[in-house]
Design goal:
single chain, 2 domains, alpha/beta, binds S-adenosylmethionine, globular, DNA polymerase, domain 1, eight-stranded mixed sheet, Rossmann fold
Length: 299
């Protein structure tokens, strides 16, 4: 969705941007090529190293600052260097990156065997440690709520019974032996998604960012979020809708009682292409919020 992001975020020379999910640096590069001043965040030190190498000339030239940390803490980190900086564009491209999924030693994959880790930030406690202190009811709730797994209770039992796990493949096989059938995907897919969301507090991060980041937009500034599953997209839709006055009280003439400070750039999410060879990209949803510029409204 690179072209859509560039079209909707309208990067221009000198504009102040934040990329909260630097990853391999593809979006960051496209924004930097259009002249923005970029603060980029990622909590994965391998992503920071790879993207910093790719974008080294921008780092040296001073148009890029790279921060290792969570995007929910981005405003605090920015305030430590430039308090109160208003932002013209913000991007969150949620979830895991291809290098994280592909590298067995990160423990996200059941295709190849790796440690039971799944943490984006290598400083966080790995999944194996988090499971050590877990009870069945709480784990079942996570697997049901974040993975939509119908047999969540059985899956939780099997996971807890088999601790400590030698690796992701053994874990996936045990999960698959009791998980509900899936169409076209490995039976452990839903549970692995749920465990990943849990250990990385992905929804907590998103909820905080949806409150803190819009508040920092300059008039006319835009905030784009690409999400990959309905748990994320629902949150983005609701937060952006509430900020732009969707469902807010109206007077007898149908005008909002309180004038919203934000608007939706497009009412509907842009969707990934069905024919995209990358299955992850097919489920992408892009939503963009804009802080209304009162000087443009009255012009
Ligand atoms: C889908 S990839 C981003 C890809 C990137 N847009 C590109 O063009 O290469 C998501 C990245 O965001 C990072 N990430 C996910 N959640 C994060 C969070 N809460 N705070 C900081 N980084 C996060 C992951 O570590 C991963 O590197």
């Amino acid at each position: 969705m690179l072209d859509d992001v560039v079209e909707l975020l309208r990067p221009s020379p000198g504009a102040r941007f934040v990329d909260g999910t630097l990853g391999g640096g593809g979006h960051a590069e496209a924004l930097l090529e259009r002249g923005v001043q970029l603060d980029a965040f990622d909590r994965d030190e391998s992503a920071i190293a790879a993207a910093s190498a790719r974008l080294g000339s921008y780092l040296e030239g001073g148009r890029l600052r790279v921060h290792r940390g969570a995007f929910a803490d981005a405003i605090g980190a920015l305030d430590a260097v430039e308090p109160g900086l208003p932002l013209d564009g913000i991007l969150l491209d949620l979830g895991v990156s291809s290098p994280q999924l592909d590298r067995a030693d990160r423990g996200f994959s059941f295709q190849s065997d790796g440690p039971v880790s799944m943490v984006m930030d290598q400083r966080d406690a790995p999944l194996s440690e988090r499971l050590a202190g877990m009870d069945e009811a709480s784990l079942a709730r996570i697997i049901r709520d974040y993975g939509d797994e119908p047999n969540s209770r059985r899956v939780a039992q099997v996971i807890l019974f088999g601790r400590p796990w030698a690796g992701t493949r053994a874990l996936a096989e045990a999960v698959a032996s009791v998980a509900a059938p899936t169409r076209g995907t490995h039976r452990a897919t839903r549970t692995f998604q749920a465990l990943r969301i849990w250990v990385n507090d992905e929804l907590g991060q998103l909820d905080r960012a949806l409150v803190d980041l819009p508040a920092r937009l300059a008039p006319g500034g835009r905030f784009a979020v690409i999400s990959f599953h309905s748990l994320e997209d629902r949150r983005v839709k609701q937060a952006f809708g509430a900020l732009s006055g969707v469902g807010a009280p109206v007077d007898v003439y149908g005008h909002p009682v309180v004038t919203p400070e934000f608007r939706l750039v497009e009412r509907k999410a842009r969707k990934g292409e069905d024919r995209d060879p990358n299955p992850r990209a097919r489920s992408a949803r892009l939503r963009v919020l804009e802080r209304i510029d009162p000087s443009q409204e009255s012009a």
